[in-house]
Specification:
mainly alpha; 8 helices
């Protein structure tokens, strides 16, 4: 699987978004780096009264951008495509205890479920392709992480 290049990143606006503004170019752990990109976006948007409208737009644009980038990379869910991690993690952050431990826990839980892909995440990941498939497995990982986070938060 070829790694995307800076030339690919800037060849199309969908590539730039799908590769998380360049985070997906990382040779190691691009999904982890992409997830970290969500933090500054969250802090930029958290007080915006239209936060959830932004999130809906991020998800819709993600289906489009990830679909184009995957098609142009020749791999439907290439590891360099990280917009799915960014958008999904942005759904968790508003429910995260606003403490360093809360943010670390949310990050760790999301990455755990995104990598592990327990049922039905892995099952869907293998069967739903294109931009929707790229986004869907991360949305489910976010849901699992959020449920665990809310359970643990009650004890924090």
């Amino acid at each position: 699987m070829a790694r995307p290049t800076p030339t690919f990143l800037f060849a199309h606006p969908a590539h730039f978004l799908a590769l998380g503004f360049g985070a997906g170019l990382s040779p190691k752990a691009p999904g982890t780096l992409g997830t970290l990109v969500a933090f500054p976006l969250f802090w930029l948007l958290v007080d915006n009264p239209f936060y959830w409208v932004w999130m809906a737009a991020f998800l819709a644009v993600g289906v489009w951008a990830c679909g184009i980038a995957g098609r142009n990379l020749g791999v439907h869910d290439h590891g360099g495509i990280v917009w799915d991690e960014i958008a999904a993690f942005l759904l968790i952050l508003p429910f995260t205890p606003a403490t360093p431990l809360g943010f670390v826990l949310a990050f760790a839980l999301f990455r755990l479920f995104d990598i592990w892909k327990p049922f039905p995440i892995g099952w869907l990941d293998q069967r739903v392709h294109g931009g929707l498939g790229v986004m869907l497995d991360d949305l489910l990982a976010a849901a699992y992480a959020l449920l665990c986070l809310l359970g643990v938060s009650a004890w924090m």
